[in-house]
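The instructor's notes for this session suggest beginning with a concrete chain rather than abstract definitions. Hand out the sequence below and ask the class to guess, before any prediction is shown, which regions might be ordered.
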Amino acid sequence: MDWQKNLLIAAILATLLMLVIRWNEYQENLPTQTPVATQATTNNSSLPAVSVANSDIPVAANTPAEAEKTTLASTQLISVKTDSFDLVINPLGGDIVQLALPRHFLKLDTPDQPFVLLDNRDNHTYLAQSGLIGTNGTDTAQGRPLFSSEKTEYTLAEGEKQLVVDLLLQQGDVKITKRYTFTRGDYLINVEYLIDNKSTNIWSAQLYGQIKRDSQNFKKVSALEMNPFLGAAITTTDENYKKITFDDMAEKEEKSVVQGGWVAMVQHYFISAWIPDAGSQNTYHLRKLGTNDLYLMGFTGKVNEVAPGTQGSISAGFYAGPKDTERLEQISPYLDLTVDYGWLWWVAKPLFAVLKFIHNLVGNWGLAIIGLTLCVKLLFFKLSATSYKSMAKMRKLAPKMAELKERLGDDRQKFSQEMMKMYKTEKVNPFGGCLPLLIQMPVFLALYYVLMESVELRHSPFFGWILDLSVKDPYFVLPIIYGITMYFMQKLNPQPTDPMQARIMQMLPLVFTFMFLWFPAGLVLYWVTNNTLSIIQQYIITKQIDAEPATK
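After discussion, reveal the predicted structure:
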């Protein structure tokens, strides 16, 4: 029984270690949010500090002649409001320099402050850039184009499905329209360049899109708090989902050529991503920008040509919003992998599908977690029963084992031989209680990832004091209940004969309770429910085994 208990302790501690490693894996950074302004200011003084000369413009296949440098004079920021976005476009380059999500609050108790995803104020840089480079490109290292627009405020009207914002530029005999198309209820923005070539020459350029971000505005968090990955991600020909940290980009530039593809900035619950034409070869680049604390992750498309006297268009998608698995899967292959379930994604995805199905039935994510826990328990009912029967038999043998140890003293070899005889006589498998638990471990870990990564749980209430399942229990009620259930589970299990092991087992409820104080309430709710169901099942089985006559 001692080595069985050792194996059980090792399994529990290994699980705990994996969870701690998960917390600390990306412990360096967590974004600090700045409340978005309720109304975009449109005077010159509010313009972000943007250098006219740009070293962050990608290198084109064909280098154009030097463009005339532009100026920031007489420009106004353009405000765009839809049901999904509250954003600001800078006419210099036509970049998105601020973007908030009105349907997602910064904090549960601040519903008037939407979650800010992109921002370029207060010494923080996080914006979405796009433009044209190449022979007739409008964007060069010498300057960005200055677009004009019909107005400086655009709003998606009631009953309207789409909102179109056109930015206009005249380039000799070529008229260029940079068009943003916003769709109601969607976080995917279509960015399109319309080319009207009235010149006598072929017009040629490449579309590029990139995310520009710093790594400075972060706060340190406690080692016990959940802090998922923050950094870039890309799909390549070799890897469907490749994560790239800021340190990786600082060390060397990442380049790859992919058919279609995407590039993204990933953080907990939210993502921004460029998705170029799926039918063309796109060059992706991720790098640090010079000696500044700025990083670029983007793409350059193929060379596009528009014949004289004709019209053409180039477009790409830009997604900025929650990590909605179903929507991301529709947008581009493997983009849904940014909802990072780790190496157990093949288990986590079906679990999330069941969780979502139950939520559609009951309308509460807390109840859905309880329902999912019940489903998992039913799935492993027979395995758990086997484990509990084995532990109940071991518990029943505890007095005989104690008597045997007292009689044989320190003769470990003789004690082991007598123990094996007893196991054989009583038909007890010492591994019977351990192996079923180890088999279930991947499911438990996958469920951990599901509850950690699902944006649906963000700001979702349960009952009473649990107003947000994605953060810790404010009064630590669930972790304390968890510790109590773990204590009672131990009482139903065979107790170690070794005093040191017994003390370790007694400490585990306290250790896990302390760790769970900082776990999201949704995850602790799962474990409380799981333990409660396990206690009921184990209690019934233990009583049945205790009622059986002992083997003579």
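Then share the key points. Residues 396 and 546 are 7 Å apart (CA to CA). The mean pLDDT is 83.
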